[in-house]
Every structure is written in structure tokens, then in C-alpha cells.
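thread from #wetlab-drylab

HS: before we spend reagent money on co-crystallization trials with iron/sulfur cluster, can we at least see a predicted complex? here's what I'd submit
DV: go for it
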Amino acid sequence: MIITKKKDIKAILASLEGKKTVYLFGCNSCAEQCATGGEKELKEMTAILEENGIKVVGASLPEETCYRQLVLKDYRNKPEFREAEAVLVLACGAGVRTVADSVEETQPVFPALDSFFLATVERVGRFFEGCSLCGECVLDATGGICPHTECPKGLLNGPCGGVAHGKCEVNIECDCAWVRIYNRLEKQGRLDALKKITAPKDHSVGIRPRKVLLRESARSADRKDKK
Ligand code: SF4
Ligand code: SF4
């Protein structure tokens, strides 16, 4: 799940300066769970914008705003969406980007949220970061704990010299990721895994933007886009 936080309303109003009509997009998936872009937040944003003289001409709440076909469906069927002077998206950056790619390029699309990280959902409303999507997973050798993400220095061969009493020197509220890795591998009888030096990451696998084309139809659309 992607974790988002609300932008300061002053920054949102500044981005919408001069606009009289706005269409809103929420997201009924991650942003809804983060309480940043569900039905309630769309209503709250509508009230704020209208108090500030901006008319909200409509709103969409797709199951996933990062799914372009869902956004395009509303774009085709809702003239108020096409005709709004601007679109404000209460979703992660992928959602904003998807909406921006679905509308005419003359129609500005603005983010209402900041996107933070890919989260593991421990329970409703309790999220933590466990993977940075590096493209070269090493969890097999680290007992399922990601040093790239959970060690602030991203050390692939740890711990560093700063660990004290099992705590991280950078973030003293947290246990050192490498101490946790050691303890877990010990319980699994796999401490030998720590004797291997992990080679530096091949950052070429993480060159952005990345894409995946799973089906022939996707590959064919990609070829057409490149022409
Ligand atoms: S090594 Fe860490 S950041 Fe990379 S894919 Fe695995 S969990 Fe994600
Ligand atoms: S103390 Fe542990 S988690 Fe913190 S930076 Fe050093 S190795 Fe990484």
C-alpha cells in the first residue's frame, strides 16, 4: 500500500489560484485507507474549496486511481470532468500521474497529497515501510528484513560501528536492522548467510522510469507509443 499525507491546504489553494471550477479525484484504495483520499476527504475538500470561492463541479472515487482505464471511463462519460478548469487529485503520485495522462494536456492536474512509501499494513491505520522497491531483492539472505530499507544507511553488509545496545545510531528509537537480521537468522540456524559478503547493488536494474509489459497487447501498445 502507498502511504500518503495531506498537503498543506494553503499550498493546494496556491496551486489552484485563478481557477474557478475544479473536478476532484479520490482513490478508494490506499488513499482511502490512509484517510487522505476517500469519500470523507473528498467532502471535506469540497467544503474547503467552496469556502474559498472555487466551485467543485464533480468528483470521482475509483477503486484504484492508478488504473488508467478506470480514470478514462470517467473522462469519457463525465463532461463536467473534461470541462473543469483544473483537476485536484487526492491520491498518491501514481494516481495523479494517471489522471494527468488521461486528460487533455491543456487541462492542469494538481496533487492534494504527498506520497511517502510502500507500506506493510500491520493492521488498520498502522503502517510501516519494509521495501524500497530496489529491483534486486536480498531478503533471502537477511531473514526477510530489508537492510536497504530498514537500515537508514542502506548497508548491505552490516551492522555499522554505530550500533549501541541493539539500537540504531541514526534512528535511536529503532532497533538496528542488522541486529534484528542476526537474531532472526540465528533462530533459523542460518547464521552462515552472514559470512557471505553481499556485492554492491546493481543500480542499473533500478533505472527509472521502470515498466513491465506482461502481455502481447501491452507490448504492442508500447510499440505504438514509441512510433
Ligand atoms: S531488497 Fe529490500 S528494497 Fe529491495 S526488493 Fe527486497 S525488500 Fe524491497
Ligand atoms: S546502527 Fe544498524 S540500522 Fe543503524 S545505520 Fe548502523 S547498521 Fe544501519
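DV: Residues 131-134, 137-139, 146, 148-149 surround iron/sulfur cluster (ligand 1) (CB under 6 Å).
HS: ok that's useful, forwarding to the group
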